[in-house]
């Protein structure tokens, strides 16, 4: 045991020697809500990464929509592939800047754990029907703090939860590693959603306005490469994660272009109204029939004195697209009379 304890301590010591002074060091973590013995081999952020990777919520991401609902093709992104691409982009930036790669990866892998079925359509539906509101970043934190492991939560470090909670545009994480994930999330979805839109025949690279292409590139690979290089160059040896003004503006204009041509495209979004109504129907059903909720959620509701509205959101947001559709069919679609 003594030798294995030395392994973790050596890794923590290497962080001080090898990482930037602006990095978040594992040894200096603000810790967990519940004290627990240290792992004898892994520093805290690596341990958090592993807990997220092995969680049920992470596995469900493989059957949750990114942009295209129920696409006809094997190569469209899902919420899981989006998460992996965010992680890859973020790790590339963190490694180049000598920041804590384990912390970056843990935040990236956990940032969308609380996302609903059917992507942002499901999120809008729950937010509109639940009087308490619904935001997927807050639900991701609730997933790791409360819902995972049958109500025990994953007991992650403060830094990982902070990065998950604040990964959306209107918020700002407390660590540079969290800021890397925040910007990598945007880079990933702009890049891969454009790729999926090209695959779906909605766009071509030639449709990207020239003023954007001249700054960040005219192809998918050029844009991804230029965005990451710009962040690394302008954040090197800085206590912040930055982009140059021209590249930041071009990325903003690319995002606006994607909203106009993909995210709000009637072809891509044609099924979203149906998905929203499905989610609202499931919410109303379980709110009116709380006895049909899973036993573990009922126990959490009783233990934490949690509002029924929040518990119903817990149940629905955890569903995969496929399970939500199957459950809706079971509850609302008439079945043929069985022959006796």
Short description:
This protein is mainly alpha-helical. Helix content is 62%, strand content 0%.
- First-to-last CA distance: 66 Å
CATH architectural name: Orthogonal Bundle
Shape designation? flat
CATH top level?
Answer: Mainly Alpha
Number of helices: 16
Category from helices, strands and their pairing: mainly alpha
The major pleated sheet works out as: none
Strand content: under 5%
Which SSEs are present, and which pair or pack?
Blueprint: H1 2-18, H2 44-53, H3 56-60, H4 79-97, H5 101-110, H6 119-129, H7 136-151, H8 158-165, H9 176-199, H10 210-216, H11 220-235, H12 245-263, H13 272-288, H14 295-304, H15 308-317, H16 321-332
Helix pairs in contact: 2-5, 4-5, 4-9, 4-11, 5-8, 5-9, 6-13, 7-14, 8-9, 9-11, 9-12, 10-12, 13-15, 13-16, 14-15
Relevant terms:
about 350 residues; mainly alpha; Hypothetical protein af1432; 16 helices; flat
Report what the structure shows:
62% of the residues lie in helices and 0% in strands. Helix 6 crosses helix 13 (272-288), helix 9 (176-199) runs antiparallel to helix 11 (220-235) and helix 9 (176-199) crosses helix 12. It is built from 16 helices and no strands. The chain has one domain (2-332): Orthogonal Bundle (Hypothetical protein af1432), CATH 1.10.3210.10. The protein has helices at 2-18, 44-53, 56-60, 79-97, 101-110, 119-129, 136-151, 158-165, 176-199, 210-216, 220-235, 245-263, 272-288, 295-304, 308-317, 321-332. The mean pLDDT is 92. By secondary structure, the protein is mainly α.
């Amino acid at each position: 045991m003594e030798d294995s304890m030395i392994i973790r301590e050596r890794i923590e010591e290497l962080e001080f020697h090898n990482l930037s002074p602006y990095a978040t060091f594992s040894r200096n973590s603000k810790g967990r809500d519940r004290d627990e013995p240290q792992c004898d081999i892994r520093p805290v952020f690596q341990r958090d990464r592993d807990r997220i990777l092995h969680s049920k919520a992470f596995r469900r991401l493989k059957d949750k929509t990114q942009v295209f609902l129920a696409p006809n093709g094997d190569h469209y992104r899902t919420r899981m592939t989006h998460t992996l691409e965010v992680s890859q982009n973020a790790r590339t930036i963190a490694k180049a800047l000598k920041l804590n790669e384990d912390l970056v990866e843990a935040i990236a892998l956990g940032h969308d754990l609380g996302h609903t079925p059917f992507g942002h359509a499901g999120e809008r539906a729950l937010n509109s029907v639940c009087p308490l509101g619904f935001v997927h970043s807050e639900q991701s934190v609730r997933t790791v703090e409360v819902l995972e492991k049958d109500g025990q939560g994953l007991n992650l470090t403060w830094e990982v939860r902070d990065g998950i909670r604040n990964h959306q545009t209107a918020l700002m994480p407390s660590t540079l590693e969290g800021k890397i994930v925040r910007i990598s999330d945007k880079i990933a979805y702009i890049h891969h959603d454009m790729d999926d839109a090209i695959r779906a025949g909605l766009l071509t690279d030639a449709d990207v306005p020239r003023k954007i292409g001249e700054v960040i590139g005219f192809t998918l690979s050029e844009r991804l490469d230029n965005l990451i290089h710009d962040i690394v160059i302008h954040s090197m040896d800085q206590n912040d994660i930055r982009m140059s003004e021209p590249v930041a503006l071009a990325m903003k204009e690319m995002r606006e272009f994607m909203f106009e041509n993909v995210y709000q495209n009637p072809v891509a979004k044609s099924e979203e109204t149906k998905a929203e109504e499905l989610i609202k129907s499931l919410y109303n059903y379980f709110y009116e029939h709380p006895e049909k909720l899973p036993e573990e959620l009922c126990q959490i509701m009783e233990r934490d004195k949690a509002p029924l509205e929040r518990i119903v959101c817990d149940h629905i947001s955890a569903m995969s697209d496929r399970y939500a559709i199957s459950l809706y069919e079971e509850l609302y679609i008439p079945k043929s009379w069985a022959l006796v």
